Amino acid sequence: MQQPSRLPTHQSARAGREGDVLAVVSQGGATVSFFDAASDRLLGTTDVLAEPHELCFDPTERLLWCTSAYRSGYYHANGGRRTEVTVIDPGTRRVVEVVDLAPEHGPHGLALDPARRRLYVSVEGSADRPGGVVVIDTATRRPVGRIDTGAPGPHWFAVDPAGRTGYATNKEAPFVSVVDLERGVMTAEIEVPGSEGLAVSADGGLVFVAAPYAGAFSGHGEERPAEGIRVIDTRTASVVDTLPAENVVMPVHVTSTGKLLAGEMRMEPDPVYLLGRQAPGRLSVFCADSRRRLGELETGLGPLTITSSPDGRIGYVACVVSSVVDVVDLETLERLARLDIAKSGEPGAHGLAYLPRPS
């Protein structure tokens, strides 16, 4: 088994994690890897359908959901959109079921409402209807509804803590879609340039959105909007602030302790490549309430997904280009370890899920 690159361990950050597991998608390897959260030891892997993207853990059913968006490639350059979501038993690391959402396709973002036992899966649009979110009953593992989001490419989806409102970022549409989850309808468009990851504050009052869309590295003659994180006030459904960034931001995440984590994808000029070449990424940390910048840390190449431990002490940054996960002490902003994620092609590490041990 491949072992992680370890740095001197801070025992206080590791304390109490025995039995917890970190699950990591390898998009190029078509696997989900499981690591011991206390020791970073690789426990095993599970083969899944090609092009797995995101993960979501359901603590009630003790099941792990994994989307597979494309047959090959990525958003703008793929070999056809898939229609399946894979369900895994993390205890045995075996596939329980493959749920086919056809005719829906391009499943990507996942958001769970454990109280109502609903899982929301973002899907891409087609010629006859816009993109949206499929609603799945987590007890039966069957779709029970669909909510339009008014744009072709809703790629990330988040639900407020009350489970009543959902937010979809749209890569190419200039707005964030707001949906009423109880009525199953879209209720608002919040003006934001084509956007990537998003996260909702603990009280549901703010939504943090990474924008503009990372695929538009070149403005093609048009002035590119400033990089950063748009801050949305959910009461007024409007942008009230922008946290600036030097580089394209893709993932954002809010920890249980109120820290806002953002992954910046950095590029270096290169005469061979039009868009340059990947440089080490950056994890930027803010206070979600005050929006004050707390610090930063260099990461692997292409930070694409971020999650954290339930106590908010440890952050995990999946870096798709170098196919590693950086394990970060969020109090000291030191890297504790670097997990190598196996891949058979490009790209590599993508979706993440933290699985607390059964209580």
TrEMBL record:
Recorded GO molecular functions are: DNA binding
Q: Where are the transmembrane segments?
A: none
Q: Which UniProt keywords apply?
A: DNA-binding
Asked if DNA-binding is a keyword of the record, the answer is: yes
Lineage top rank: taxon:
Bacteria
- UniProt keyword Transferase, yes or no: no
What this protein is called in its record is: DNA-binding beta-propeller fold protein YncE
The root-end lineage is: Bacteria, Bacillati, Actinomycetota, Actinomycetes, Kitasatosporales
